[in-house]
Fold these 4 entries.
Entry 1:
Amino acid sequence: MKTARRQELRTNELSQQIDQIGDYVKQNAAMLTIIVAAAAILTAGGFWFVKGRQSRVMDGWAMLNDAEILKDMRGAVEQYRTLAEENRTSALTLAAWLRIGELAMSKVANPDVAAAAADPNWSETAANAYTRILEDFPNDVSAVGLARISLGVLAENKKDFDNARKSYQAILDDSRLADSPYAVQAKYRLDGLARWSQPVVFAPAPIVTTAPDPLMTPPSVMTLPLLPTTAPTSGPAVGGVPITPLPSNPPVATTQPAG
């Protein structure tokens, strides 16, 4: 009996709560409609934002792999720099800076007239890209190693051997790069830097203090026999009788033969 009574009380209490909710909805229908619509808009907006961002990221990767862009190297660098500055994703940003450094270093290693006319500062472009990598991606070990090696080479090209030495030494001091190819390259360049930084001195030309040996000296033009400049007046002798050479232009007869 008591159990049935308790069940009846619970049912009545639940009915009262439902009625109260219904009354609240009726009284605040407009506000609830606005809240539901706003939630739907936010959900849809968030969905399209995510889809749009994903699409832009895919477009960025496609740009980095588009060979047509490379026909204009200066334009390609500008597009990659814009892509990196937009920071669509960290991976895409890093890839864009690496591509800029790669293109600029290729121009530094193989300069040509067209590239120099379009942009005389390829070294500066490469240095800026690799510096950004060191600043923004210090935890990417491979990118850090490549950036430091490249900055060292660029410093060497400018004969800034102190900064080149610092770049190579920073690789050797980084335990993360101890077993990497970058450490091997850094040690090789660091060991040779002392020799490469020394100016090249050429030995003076020997001074000849003895007279030249006439037997070893080729005859000058003046010692050669002179060639005749006029035709001979008589031919070679045959049997002791000289032969008169024929004139080059025999005379033409001016009279008719008799008869």
Entry 2:
Amino acid sequence: MKLKSIAILLSILIIFSACTPANISTPTQTSLPSTATSIPPTDPAAPLPGLTLKEDASLFSGPGNSDFEIIASLKEGDTVYPMALFGDFIKVETSVYGEEQIGYLWKSVVESPGTIASILNANQVPLKPLYLADCSPGTYDRTNDSVVFTNPSGEYYDTESSAIPLDAPLQVNMSRASVKGTTSAAIKILGIPEPVNEEWWRGITRLDIGYNSGNYSIGIRDGSSKDSKVYINLPLKTTEGIHLLFDQPSGRSFRVLDDNGNQIEEINFASRSDLNLPSGLFPNGAVYIGTTVPPHSSFTVTGLDIGIHSSGLWTDAANGYYTQPGLAELAAKHNITIGTEFGIDLTSDPRYCRTMKREFNVAVLSAFSSPDLWLGPGQYDFNASDQAVDYALQHGWKVRASHLLWGALETIPDWLKNSSYSRDEYIQLMQQYI
């Protein structure tokens, strides 16, 4: 299913939120560049003597003010205990309402940051997140860091984000996976998205990290066939963790590691005669992230973390974005509702989901005029609309149903397009539907 992009929303986005990557040791043998081995080990650094904040500041979950979420707001005069430096940020430990918090501060807000000698490398800090489990089409359980993608319909449920630029090699981490009602489901990673008006597979570049009867699997499509051109059922149980490390932003090759850093598989696209991916999986320098879940089934993934190395740079353009009120907060002060068209599938893109949360308090749902809802005279399938409404309410949005019935051909079900009712019968059907 090809998703429609909401360009106005996504064009204003600069903010991603953070996910903490899994901790495994660096593999002992590799033929790929060392930049691909970036699953960070536990940081052994101990806090240094305390530093005082020169001004109010935000504590971020990772080293970036345009990529990571704020986990605490600190005040001028507060004391923080530095652990190490990374780029423009200091990893610190502090107390917030009596609870210990570890995060990242812009080093300009503390006194004498130059006294910190310990320097972190990119393998020791969280990935810049390109996906947020708690802001996705699935149902997120924070207690065990699991997200459940449910498909109550009779068709495959596919989600797909908008294009997310890649300026560093992509990494994908999963702690474990399971399914109900099926034997397979997958996380989709695409470099060229599925087309709208053609056969869905033609011209795409896509990698599926899947569940297959209790083992992880890898499926790769190069746009020349409906089926995967390369399919590998990995000798790795889905009760364990899996880690995919690409070698470069274009994704010309990648390795699969287990939780102990052992290499399970290596794929170099240029050397595969059975694949036509000479420029890699991401030839346009961007990734599209999504899921595919079979009908009447669910896919549960724990510890899902998709991201790239953080640069550790402070971004002036993003300064104050989180600390200033969004449109939703400003509107609420004046009892004003402000909404926009909402698509649950688009929440695969964290930029979209974060912007919806910050700027809007009403989700306008056109699922009520979907051709998949109206199966025949007096026959309806409310699964998709129920799912969209439930998601919107759970995330604090009011719901407005848009277009209960309208004349665009793509919203009229085939059985109605091909019917030959009389004018009065059409009016009666419309009244019944509404």
Entry 3:
Amino acid sequence: MKFTAHVSHKILVGAVASSFALIGGSALAQSPAVTVDFAELASKPLMPAGLYSSSVLDSATDAPKTAAASTGSAVSVPAPTAKAAAVNSGSWPGAVPAGSPGPFSAMAVTVKVGSTGIGVDLATPLAHHFGLRTGASYFAYNPTLTTDGMNINGELHLQNASTSLDIYPFHNTFRISPGLTWNNATRMSATLFAPGGSEFSFGNGANSYSDPTNPVHGTANVVMGHGIAPRITMGWGNILPTHGRVSFPVEFGMQYTQKPTMKLMISGNGCGSQTEADGTVDAGCGPVDQSDVQEEQKELNNDIAPLRFYPILSLGVSFRFGHPASRGE
């Protein structure tokens, strides 16, 4: 008998031949003529009858095939395995479901409020469990306060624009969003004024009184790091909801802005003591000691240093427009 087989079938054919020699020897001896198609047997998996059964999924149809048992009888196999069914349905890890959203197939608008101001985000899907989001926030506030005898009229401007990649790793609404703040324009400034005759102090210097003829005054300016800052946030709420059109995303995290710096400039005269009930001061007046001003600036810069890790916290409401088209649809 001449036999030619594919290289990938050599080991299997050997096993088939051995099985027939050991198990079916007596049957072959009693049979007047037996014809064995080894090529056909080599194309099918070998399974000992009565021990187990399996199915071979056809790559095109996933339909179960029959396998030949070692006795030569056909063994009927069950439907596709649980893993095959999970792959087909898209729930198996790493599988791309037929219903996953196509890139840029929909858009959502989020209105939010938080530590970066009042903002608007635009989001769109990129792939299964991935989305792209970009937005901007702004807020202005003018606080007025008094500290160390100085009246402070401040201006706070929260302004930034950012882009983030939304990753949903657990197949639910929780997300992790690495990103980049590419327009960090948050800044603070203030004017300072000590009315004539009022008490004030800077740094480690002794308390002094502002000269009514040349009151103490100045400015303070804070720069919040560089204009570009990496950021990382986490949150809940799918910004592009697949069920319904409205969601309520929550986000928290931080951006690294590098060390913020304050520049303090003070001028005017300070006096050593107050002697009259009407607020007039003695003759011991002179320019503000700039070493005390520098000490005050150093203390303030140490106070604001933690803001290099600027906190991000926001609450919002998201509205989806359009239908997320699915791959394969």
Entry 4:
Amino acid sequence: MEKEGVGEQQIEPFAAHVQELYQIDITEELKSLWSEGKDLAELGISILSAQIGKKIEVTSPEMFNDFLRYHYMKQIDTRWQNHLDQLEALRESVNLRTYAQKNPLLEYKLEGFDIFDSMITSIRDYMALLMVRVQIQSDTKVPTRSAKRQSVNLHRDMSSFSRNDAPSGQTGPVQVKRTAPKVGRNDPCPCGSGKKYKHCHGRNA
């Protein structure tokens, strides 16, 4: 049965407003979740929160928080400099208000607070937009956890091999025969560490 009512008529204008701000079309999701008595703003927040949750799943909470922290600090630094410039301009202008029989110190405090509050709001708005608008892309150059583990295991195997441990139960000297080409000291280490052989396992050779 098709839903009717004032709430449903507001879905498309509300979705258009969200798309203008966050560049995400949530029209169909709103229509599927909306029912009589539900608040469109709450539904919109839940949909956007789900979008952010998917990004956190791809990156990890730690990496996503590091990303937000970097941009948050960057915004504070940039906007604080602008805030100080605005206060300086305000300080110069309030002195003229004495001609209008106004207290310049009181005017400076009131408007200075408004400027500060506007700065905080602008930072919050920017971060909210950033969380939703940011696009997560996988980087094939970053090694996966399994690849890192494989490299660690290979590095451990190379370390144990370089010690030339004798097999269990054997007391006499061990004769080692080379089965692979000799690795030059300036060649990459076969363990995959990315270091030269002389700086890795070649130190014990």
